[in-house]
Amino acid sequence: MKSKVFTPFKRLRSIFNVLTKASVILPMFKDVFTGKYKMPIGRLLLFTLALAYMIWPIDLIPDYILVLGWIDDLIVFGYVAKFLDEELRKYKEARNFLKGKPVVLPGKWK
Description:
Blueprint: H1 7-20, H2 22-34, H3 41-55, H4 66-99
Helix pairs in contact: 1-4, 3-4
């Protein structure tokens, strides 16, 4: 039986993966808005709304409440980080394919 990783730790792992790929985020969105890379509209909308929620001063818990105000932003970012991490992986594969570099597929070969 597989052991399940506690969900907050999965989200922390996704946040860490996104932060390590931070140099790719802006070029990806630049390519999305110039039309060089196609991203599903639902994900683009999700990322835009999450960014607006984190920047907007009116939250579920206001940001002026020091620690608690940042926790709800972190929860939203943790949820979105999973999808952003998947999209960054797809973008890097597409970019490598267009440059002629070999594309490494995830998973085990049998």
